[in-house]
Amino acid sequence: MRTTAAHHEDTKPFEEHEENYRRVFLRGFRTLRAFVRRDDGGNGNGGDGGNGITQRNGATETNQIFSVISVASFLCVLPLSPSPPFLVAASGVSYAETIDRVLAVVAGQIITLTDVTAARDLRLETTDGAADPIRALLSKLIDRELILAEVERYAPAEPTAEEVERETARVRARFVSPEELAGALARSGIDDTHLRETLRQNLRIRAYMEQRFAATADRRQELVDQWLAGLRRRADIIDLYLAGR
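Predicted structure:
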């Protein structure tokens, strides 16, 4: 018993180190992904069939996208061992652990298991009572990426700082305490800045959808479903999720 207890006390600092490492990794990975999605800054004069949305043209950042996929492929399964190295030999503890899992790649944008977890824990998306909640949330996040690609092509009005703050306040109100929210953010490797950026993008999506389908209120959901189905057919989607794994 003493040996087990001593081993637990000896390894506890390294377990805490590995947990901190996972969080740092996830934040860095999300920052890298956000860099790929950055604004290309080019404006064109195209339109979208007279719906009042101005099309934007810019060079596709293909090399950056492939770089992110390569880095993600390397980092998503990363060997973790206690540090410093001499303790590995002393304790004999060395193992590999999956830090995150890529569930889908949508037009070069990666969706991971932590993205799904964040959408669930922060209550940004709902499962609608689905038998497989991961599949339900992943499908919504895939659609979100497809819509965001359209948003990047057509420039809806940017949300104001006040609108973003109101959305952030709504998310905070879903939790009984700041500590509960902080725990949900930490589990997903998300900080307040990333949360605000996610909400800003959600507001851009909302503005785009309202502008695009403004004149079709009576058939809006039907037309949205048809439009999304077309986006899925045309997009490069790699769906890697298998239930039960």
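Summary: The chain is about 60% helix and 10% strand.
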